Amino acid sequence: MAMSPEQAEVWALLEQGMTRRQIADHLSLTYGQVKKRIDRAKKWADTDPAILSAMQAVGTEMTPHGVWAKVDGYSVYLRPPQIQDSLLDRVREAMDGITPAKPVAPAANLLNNLCTVYPIADRHNGLRAWGRETGEDYDHKIAGKRLVEWVGKCVDASPASELAVVLDVGDGEHMDDATNATPTSKHALDVDTRVFLTIETSVESLATAIDLALAKHGKVIVRVLPGNHNPTLYLAILFALAERYRDEPRVEVQKVPGEFWVQEFGQCMFMAHHGDKAKPDRIVHFVADEFAPMWGRTQHRFLWTGHMHHMKAQDIGGVQWEQLRAMTARDAYAFSNAYTARAQLQAITFDKDRGEVSRVKVAC
């Protein structure tokens, strides 16, 4: 008993460094066929030779939970290692299957002096909440649907600016792993599905949002920031989107480490941070010091944070700071603490010389 010739073929290509997608193209197979063969081959590759010998002796292909072996008068119980797919393995597998987006032609009559920013704050995909505001419970399906619909409405009502920014300000996902607790405070979370499905929903809905922006604007910058709920998981979303748009020259997915986003646009300076680790005045001072040349070249400066889920704004040392409303519905924790903020998404358009010139809002 051993791998079949078909399983051995794909396993050999995998060990040579080829991805599942590359193997499928090389052997003229579907991605699903390659995945099944690799999964079956892995069973044989990971099984201890002693276990294989025992299986051969009794004529079975079923992997036993353990085998007794006698060695020099001693009886030894051999148990196969418990193999569990890690989150990293699952993310890698998902990325192998991503088909790159096909390049599309830009829209006509673009306004070269304008940039539209779509700041997405605290979507909390994967959260389970009673639908008090809308009549339907908030879950990963509603989170994906809401993002696509609201971005679509904002895109339709915004000018055809040459540049657009799809900006995830953090906490796009409600959980960071299968423990269903915030990583730092270990606050128990109400979730509606598994991490794997949450990743899938986030990537699909964000990709659709990017496609909507791409149909209206000349170039789309994509930036995904971490939050206190998803300080590690956000990387899976970021790299998956980068893979999807690797062949689209009009989409720039910024794979930049760190928790701050800073971008220059003419006389405008854009800044963003989730807002969980520093207050806005401290962020302003930090950016002024770290990006002093850009600060000196610009006259209109804007900072967006999330985290607190309610709207707040202030002028701080030459910067217009906005604490964005969250996109998510209110969960049991929000109600028990008497929070009253409503969900909202905005599209803000800027002129290179004059700063903000228009704004669109969508809310429940």
Strand order of the largest sheet: 6-5-4-3-12-13
Structurally, how many domains make up the residues? 2
Q: What form results from the Cα inertia axes?
A: globular
Distance linking N and C termini: 60 Å
CATH architecture title of the largest domain: 4-Layer Sandwich
Rounded to the nearest angstrom, the radius of gyration is 25 Å
Description:
By secondary structure, the protein is an alpha/beta fold. The chain folds into 2 domains: 5-88, Arc Repressor Mutant, subunit A, CATH 1.10.10; 101-363, Purple Acid Phosphatase, chain A, domain 2 (4-Layer Sandwich), CATH 3.60.21.10. It contains 11 helices and 13 strands. It has helices spanning 5-15, 20-27, 31-45, 49-58, 87-96, 140-157, 195-216, 234-244, 280-290, 292-297, 332-336; strands spanning 67-71, 74-78, 111-120, 161-168, 219-224, 251-253, 261-265, 268-272, 300-305, 312-316, 319-323, 344-351, 355-363. The strands form 3 sheets. Strands 6-5-4-3-12-13 form a 6-stranded mixed sheet. Strands 7-8-9-11-10 form a 5-stranded mixed sheet, covered by helices on one side. A two-stranded antiparallel ribbon has the order 1-2. A hairpin with a 2-residue loop joins strand 10 (312-316) and strand 11. Helix 2 (20-27) packs across helix 3, helix 6 (140-157) packs parallel to helix 7 (195-216) and helix 7 (195-216) crosses helix 8. The longest helix is centred in the middle third of the chain and has 22 residues, at 195-216. Mean pLDDT is 87; it is low at 60-64 and 81-86.
